[in-house]
Write a structure and sequence with these properties.
This protein is an alpha/beta fold and 452 residues long. Helices cover 28% and strands 23% of the residues. The protein has 2 domains: 217 residues, Enolpyruvate transferase domain (UDP-n-acetylglucosamine1-carboxyvinyl-transferase, Chain, Alpha-beta prism), CATH 3.65.10.10; 204 residues, Enolpyruvate transferase domain (UDP-n-acetylglucosamine1-carboxyvinyl-transferase, Chain, Alpha-beta prism), CATH 3.65.10. The longest helix is centred in the first third of the chain and has 13 residues. It binds shikimate-3-phosphate.
Length: 452
């Protein structure tokens, strides 16, 4: 695909107005997957129509699941096949850029006894998969990889009966947890996951909605999740009049949120944002940095807390953000880095090792992009970052081209930097933004921001 550069100019007008956020990527993947495994039809409203989620839909279709979009009621309709009704795909399952899609589907297809070969784009093919294949191998899945380091392409062949697993993931990863839980649906017995650092719990919430026997308790500072194998999953939203409502994605909200905080006199509302406590870390950290962010209309929706968020321009100051904050804002560091670049004083972030294995090496991409645009940083260890804020008028020089490395969040973050830089900031490629936020530029235009 041809690269599409995009430029952000200094924003002289405040951001004003309101937007309805795109569907949450994590919740969208999980809704499609559980709907596919349920008995009955599920109607889903607000599903993210980004390339990542569409890749998951396509993979499920290749395994015999019917997934259609009904234009008249704006709902996706998934006809569930039950946990033994999926068929082996005739071709490779290509997940493009979607780490969540491929990792969760490895667990799901293992659980339903379907062998498949998984592929992805250049970024996804460089990402570690051993964190998924190790526990799946312990459950009895055969893994075939042509590389010494386990990366895509990969072929997985599950045994006739999976073994249940009692597993303590070595890294804080909701994808690892979700893959094991989805596999655990097909295991004979109880699957247990012991999380030292709790991660987003959308899998648990969604499994509960579909009737799985799943429990979470806290023991010796670990979150312990237990799931009984071989449940009967029942579609809980059979009609389009009462569909499964997907919440707005806080990871996509991050960019407009930071833009409104930085551009003087801005005052915006982001509607329908997911407020899951494992996802609202950025909002809480920004508030500590001085941000005025208010929640209105809080409510429960499909097992998740959601609300509308009012964000007003606020002068920010740097703080120290420890490793304990990482899990609840793992995808938000690119946006946070831009806020820190415009804050008074230093912001110090710790525990960032996982940023190195996202869609790009995000720690390296953030440092390179900030430095190229005149923002000073320091990183003494492999997993920390100090950003020296330059909040005064015209202090962020800008003027550079930022390499996005096939990473949607690096792309959106540096467009936001351009709004408060002295010179325009250009990103080398905006195409990946469509993986998670296809309407990003039009939503920003609704708030008064135009990228060219
Ligand atoms: C996700 C988990 C996180 C996050 C990703 C979505 C999920 O990944 O970065 O964008 O939906 O489970 P890790 O599990 O690798 O931390």
């Amino acid at each position: 695909m041809d690269k599409k550069p995009l430029t952000a100019h200094r924003q002289t007008q405040p951001l004003k107005g309101h937007i309805r956020l795109p569907g949450d990527k994590s919740q969208s993947h999980r809704a499609l997957m559980l709907a596919a495994l349920a008995h009955g039809t599920t109607h889903i409203h607000g599903l993210l129509q980004g390339a990542d989620v569409l890749a998951t839909a396509q993979a499920l279709k290749s395994c015999g699941v019917s997934i259609t979009y009904e234009d008249e009621n704006k709902c996706w309709m998934v006809i569930g096949q039950g946990t033994s009704g999926l068929s082996a795909p005739q071709q490779d399952l290509d997940f493009g850029n979607a780490g969540t899609g491929v990792r969760l589907m490895m667990g799901l297809l293992s659980g339903v006894g379907v062998a498949a070969r998984f592929t992805g784009d250049i970024s996804l093919s460089a990402r570690p998969m051993q964190r998924i294949t190790d526990p799946l191998a312990q459950m009895g899945v055969m893994i075939e990889s042509s590389h010494k380091e386990i990366t895509l392409p990969l072929r997985l062949t599950p045994p006739p009966q999976l073994l249940p697993l009692d597993y303590t993931p070595p890294q804080a990863s909701a994808q690892v947890k979700a893959a094991i839980l989805l596999a655990g649906l097909g295991a004979a017995g109880t699957t247990i996951i012991r999380e030292a650092h709790p991660t987003r719990d959308h899998s648990e919430n969604m499994l509960r909605l579909f009737g799985a026997a799943i429990e979470t308790r806290i023991e010796e500072e670990h979150h312990i999740i237990t799931l009984q194998g071989h449940p009967q999953l029942i579609a809980p939203f059979p009609t389009h009049a009462d569909p499964l409502q997907i919440a707005g994605d806080p990871s996509s909200a991050a960019f407009a949120m930071v833009a409104a905080l930085l551009v003087p006199h801005s005052d915006i509302v982001l509607e329908n944002m997911m407020l899951n406590p494992h996802r609202d870390g950025l909002m809480r950290i920004l508030q500590k940095m001085g941000a005025t962010i208010d929640i209105t209309n809080p409510r429960q929706q499909a097992g998740e807390r959601v609300g509308d968020i009012r964000v007003r321009h606020s002068p920010l100051h740097g703080i120290t953000i420890g490793a304990d904050a990482v899990a609840a804002m793992i995808d938000e560091y690119p946006a946070l880095a831009i806020a820190a670049a415009h804050a008074q004083g230093e912001t110090y972030m710790q525990g960032l090792a996982e940023l190195r294995v996202k869609e790009s090496d995000r720690l390296a991409a953030i440092i390179a992009g900030l430095n190229a645009n005149g923002v000073a940083t320091q990183s003494n260890h492999k997993d920390d970052l100090r950003i020296f804020g330059a909040p005064e008028k015209n202090n962020i020089k800008g003027g550079a081209m930022v390499a996005t490395h096939h990473d949607h969040r690096i792309a959106m973050a540096f467009l936001v930097l351009g709004l408060v830089a002295q010179n325009p900031v250009q990103i080398d490629d905006a195409t990946m933004i469509a993986t998670s936020y296809p309407d990003f530029t039009s939503d920003m235009a609704k708030l008064g921001v135009r990228f060219v």
